[in-house]
Protein 1
Amino acid sequence: MRRLAFIVLLLGFGCAASSLALKAFWPGSRGDVSLSAGDVVELDDEGTELVLETFRVPKYPSGKPRQFESEVRLVGKGVGAPVRATVRVNHPLRWNGFWIYQMSYDAATEQTTVLTLVRDPWLGLAAFGGGLLLLGALLGCVGGWAADGGASV
């Protein structure tokens, strides 16, 4: 069991380290865009566009913002049928390798939203490596790390 745990840990570390090394050479992309209703931003070279349909700021009775959310639509050749989704704080839209986050808004007018667009092609490899690291650690705890089966020194 110890040997299996060690191998799984090494594989996990290798995947996580590889994702970091690959990211240094092919980093993906990240950018913030400010949009008002009806504005369009191009996501990729295939003509996929993100359209802001509406932006809302629901409020508590005290007047403080409870949430801010953007209704968006993805259109273009790479999409097929248009995709409609709501992007909220802490609830990003994940689509075709993109993560679209609700970051901020113009508090003065409450008409403009700021979305962060992230494309990280190595995120899956890093997550897989992290899962292997966790699995290896669990196997090591269950099987015991010490050569004599887990006896203390």
Note: The CA atoms of residues 31 and 117 lie 5 Å apart.
Protein 2
Amino acid sequence: MPLCMAGAICTIVRRVQAGLRAEGLFWIQALFLLLIFTFGTSAYSQRLIQDEHGWVYVNHRGEALLRPFIYDNGPDYFEEGLARFVHDGKMGFHDEALRIWVPARYDFAFPFVNGKAQVGMDCHRVSDGEHRSVYCQHWDSIAHPVPGSTFAS
């Protein structure tokens, strides 16, 4: 009975299984496999690629999951466990597992700092060489949305 699907995680499972069998430590093998399937293989089943529209996270079938906000020529940095993404011209926040915590509803959003993020509506961008400034008519502050987070209010 195969215990893995494909790719890098299978290679890891097979190497660990072989090493554990050689030492007769079957209970460690079972624990290792339990940890893999408990915490999932999300790190191995999604990847970041570039397509005709820019950067996009895709699943193992190549289907688009979400588009990160681009900052410093790459995907946005994770701040307080969340990063910004863009959908239909609006911004929201996702975690490292690509779970969306704040839907894309803001024209612009700054990263979370001390449990708060500044978000803007009715915004426009002004280019200045390779950089752009954002000017918004309405600014608001939102609280960190992850329950139990050390940053949540």
Note: The two ends are 47 Å apart (CA to CA).
